[in-house]
Amino acid sequence: QVQLVESGGGLAQPGGSLRLSCAASGFTFPSHAMSWARQAPGKVIEWVAGITSHGGTFYSDSVKGRFTISRDNAKDTLFLQMNNLKPEDTAMYYCRRGGAAHSATPDYYGQGTQVTVSS
Predict the structure, then answer these.
(1) Reduced to 3 DSSP states, what percent helix, strand and coil does the chain have, rounded to the nearest 5?
(2) Cα–Cα distance measured from residue 31 to residue 2, given in angstroms and rounded to the nearest whole number
(3) Mean pLDDT confidence for 10-21
(4) How far apart are CA 10 and CA 116, in angstroms?
(5) Among 86, 97, 94, residue whose Cα is nearest residue 114
(6) Which of 20, 48, 69, 111 has the fewest CB atoms within 10 Å, i.e. the most exposed one?
């Protein structure tokens, strides 16, 4: 079965960095677009970034220039490098299969990893 397992979340100071990873299994990872989304307490889930099976990338305006999505198809792993973190980046971050573009619909979610940005 499809499994997506996120890791790498934690506490960071404003201006700091974190790197999220998502280990995928149960499907042919290189053939699928992937994406990251986040949900802050009391807010709707927000698409953050996506990457196509060919490596094309897309970003929300709120993270463009600070976050980088990438993938290692040899290791079936998705990444999100987050730099210059801001308190408003605090959220649960989810890895998703599909949903590379903002309008695309993902079909699987991981369990999430918490990112907290605070001094």
Answers:
(1) 5, 50, 45
(2) 14
(3) 98
(4) 6
(5) 94
(6) 111
Mind listing the pLDDT tens digit for each residue in 3-15? 999 999 999 999 9
CB 81 within 8 A of CB 17: yes
Give the residue from 34, 27, 29, 36 showing the smallest Cα distance to 81: 36
Work out the average pLDDT over 7-28.
98
Instruction: Give the integer Cα–Cα distance in Å for 14 and 84.
Output: 7
Residue with tokens 């290791």: 75
Beta-bridge partner residues of 6: 22
Mind listing the pLDDT tens digit for each residue in 35-68? 999 999 999 999 999 999 999 999 999 999 999 9
